[in-house]
Design brief:
346 residues; 21% helix; Alpha-Beta Plaits
Length: 346
C-alpha cells in the first residue's frame, strides 16, 4: 500500500464544489471514479481545500492510498487521459503513509478577480465578478491593510460555517489593477467558510465609497457577520496554491490590539518541548488563545508546553482542563511556570 499526493487544477464552473454531495457532481466524485477505473480498485481521495461550488483551483492538494504497482509519478499522466478537460492533475508523487493534506502547516494563496468596467467581457464572465460601479483601488488597499496579521475573523465567516475557532493569520493581502481587472491576492494560514468572498465584498464597498477604509477595522472588531459587506460570487475566486512547511517555525509571534504572545518551538525536535509566553491578552480571549496556541505546538510535535503568563498571575488554573489539555506547576530558573500536557482518558 502506498500513499500518493496529487496537485489538482480545475475549472469549477460545472461542479458543485470539491466535496461529494447529493445535489450535483463534484471534483472529488470525478477523481474517485476515474482513479477507481484506472487502478482497478476502490479509491477515495482526501483534499486539502474543500472549495465551494463554482470556485476554481490552480493547485489544490489531494492524497489517496493504492496497492496498484503503477509508479506514483506516472499516475498523473495516465489519469489525465481519462479526466474531463476541466480537471487536470499537474503532478503526482509518493508520500509517507501518515501524510495528510489538512493536518500539515501550510500557506494558502487565493485570488479574487473583479472585472471593473461599464460592459462585461464575455470571455471573463466565468472567472471574474463583474462590477459596473467604478472602484477606487487605493481605498481598497487601505481597507485591506487592517486585515493583515492574526485576528478573529468571525465577521468574515458565513454563520453556518462549522469552524469553532475563528482566529486566522493573513500574511499578506495585495489589491492591484491591470487594465479593467482588479485582483485581490490573499495569503494566510487558513480561511473560514466564505471568508475570502466576504472580504472581497467588503473591500468592494470600500472601493465604491460606501465604507471608509478605516471602517474595515470596526467590522473586524465587531465579530459579527452582519457588520461586514456581502458575499461575492464564487466564480471570481481561485485557489492558487498551497505551500507546505518542511519543519515548524522556530518562533511564532502573534500580536494585535487584543493579544500578544510568542511561541518558541526550537526545542521541539531535541526535547519535545515548546515555550509559550503570553505577553498580554484581553480577558475574554485568554482561554481561547491558550488552547489554540498550545494545540498548535502539540500538532507540531511538542509533548510538553511550558506556559508563562506575563500579564497576570493565577489566570491559568492548575489541574483544570483547557480543551484537551491540563496544566500543572513547573519550577524553572526563571520562576514558576505551568506545563501543559495532553489529557489522557483513564
Amino acid at each position: 500500500m502506498k500513499r500518493v499526493k496529487m496537485i489538482v487544477a480545475y475549472d469549477g464552473t460545472n461542479y458543485c464544489g470539491w466535496q461529494i454531495q447529493n445535489n450535483g457532481i463534484t471534483i472529488e466524485e470525478v477523481l474517485n471514479r476515474t482513479l477507481t477505473d484506472l487502478l482497478k480498485e476502490p479509491v477515495t481521495v482526501t483534499g486539502a481545500s474543500r472549495t465551494d461550488s463554482g470556485v476554481h483551483s490552480e493547485g489544490n492538494v489531494a492524497v489517496f492510498d493504492t496497492e496498484n504497482r503503477m509508479p506514483a509519478d506516472k499516475i498523473c499522466f495516465a489519469l489525465n487521459q481519462r479526466l474531463p478537460d476541466d480537471i487536470r492533475v499537474l503532478h503526482s508523487e509518493e508520500v509517507p503513509s501518515g501524510y495528510h493534506p489538512r493536518k500539515q502547516n501550510c500557506v494558502k494563496t487565493y485570488e479574487y478577480k473583479i472585472m471593473n468596467r461599464k460592459i462585461e467581457v464575455p470571455t471573463m464572465r466565468l472567472y471574474s465578478y463583474f462590477c459596473y460601479f467604478p472602484l477606487d483601488v487605493e481605498k481598497m488597499k487601505a481597507g485591506a491593510s487592517y486585515l493583515v496579521g492574526e485576528h478573529d475573523f468571525k465577521s468574515f465567516c458565513t454563520a453556518r460555517g462549522q469552524a469553532e475557532e475563528t482566529v486566522r493569520t493573513i500574511y499578506s493581502m495585495e489589491v492591484f489593477k491591470s487594465g479593467d481587472l482588479i485582483t485581490i491576492r490573499i495569503k494566510g494560514n487558513g480561511f473560514l467558510y466564505n471568508m475570502v468572498r466576504i472580504i472581497a465584498g467588503t473591500l468592494m464597498k470600500v472601493g465604491m465609497g460606501v465604507y471608509p477604509p478605516e471602517h474595515v477595522e470596526e467590522i473586524l472588531d465587531a465579530r459579527d457577520r452582519n457588520a461586514a459587506g456581502p458575499k461575492t460570487a464564487a466564480k471570481g475566486l481561485t485557489l492558487v496554491n498551497l505551500e507546505y512547511e518542511k519543519e515548524p517555525e522556530k518562533e511564532i509571534h502573534g500580536e494585535n490590539k487584543e493579544w500578544s504572545y510568542t511561541l518558541y518551538q526550537d526545542r521541539i525536535v531535541s526535547h519535545g518541548e515548546a515555550d509559550l509566553v503570553i505577553h498580554r491578552c484581553r480577558e475574554e480571549d485568554f482561554e481561547r488563545l491558550l488552547i489554540r496556541v498550545v494545540h498548535q505546538a502539540v500538532r507540531n510535535g511538542a509533548h510538553t508546553v511550558l506556559v508563562k503568563d506575563e500579564e497576570r498571575k493565577g489566570r491559568i488554573i492548575s489541574g483544570r482542563a483547557y480543551g484537551f489539555y491540563t496544566f500543572y506547576p513547573y519550577e524553572t530558573g526563571n520562576g514558576w511556570m505551568l506545563t501543559g500536557s495532553q489529557r489522557v482518558k483513564p
